[in-house]
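Technical note accompanying the year-one report. For the benefit of new consortium partners, we illustrate the data format agreed upon in the data management plan: each record pairs a sequence with a structure-token string. No post-processing was applied to the example shown here.
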Amino acid sequence: MSNEIDDSVSSQTEDKLTLVQNADLAKSDSESEQLKKLRDKAYRKFQQEEELKPFQAELIKMQQHLEQTKKRMIILFEGRDAAGKGGTIRRVTRYMNEKHYRVVALGKPTENEKTEWFFQKYVRQFPRGGEVVLFDRSWYNRAMVERVFDFCSDEEYKNFIRGVSGFEKDLIRQGTILIKLYFSVTKEEQARRFDRRKTDILRQWKLSEVDVQAQERWDDFTNVKYEMLRKTHTTHSPWKIIRSNDKHLARLNAMKVILNSVPYERGDPDLDFVPNPDIVISGSRELEMMEAQRLRSGKFKA
């Protein structure tokens, strides 16, 4: 009887040891798989950053051309929250000469600014000869965020829409290179990026009250986007829409748009400077697509 009990205990112990060993193996396999995924992700990011470098070198050449010719350049980065504007700006400027570019992200207007001509606070930030200024959101805030959240009156909005095309035409006539980029992300991708901001302590600072409401006001933002493009996409100052669900492709193609706006001498003429037509859409084409969506389904989807 004693031997039977000993055998039973021994058998149970062996079973438990086997379970523990199997669990350890499973855990080890899981950790190994996670480590592999992290390595693959890191390598993919490394490859993407390497793919950008030839174009970042071209941006340096372009910047040198602007310095030599004393040309001024303004680049507007517009679009929905979490559309990838900030990440693109960082890649565009990463290797540029810091003495000859500035990134401008203006906050809420001060009490004094509220009494000024609307464009005045932006004009104060404009480039001198040989300088590039990149606006992380611009005067088009009035046509987008301010319009959706009623931060401006109807009269202020109408005055902006009536005056902005003439304002930009005068800028260009006097020699400023103006590039208008609108980053377009899908509702599902925006939601995914917001969720990441909520849980990632390195990104939580990006999440604002306006961001929290962005998904709820999706259709409102789409409507004002359509109105903005319809009234401010002009032959002298066109919009370029950047499809930015894939951040890397958005950054790469935004660089190509910028480089193609300046007739500088290419550093590497063998590079492919042609933007991907699935990523870069003209403002007029975007309007056509939005209007077709509305005819088919009764509402915009972009």
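Partners are asked to follow this layout when depositing records. Residues 38 and 44 are 10 Å apart (CA to CA).
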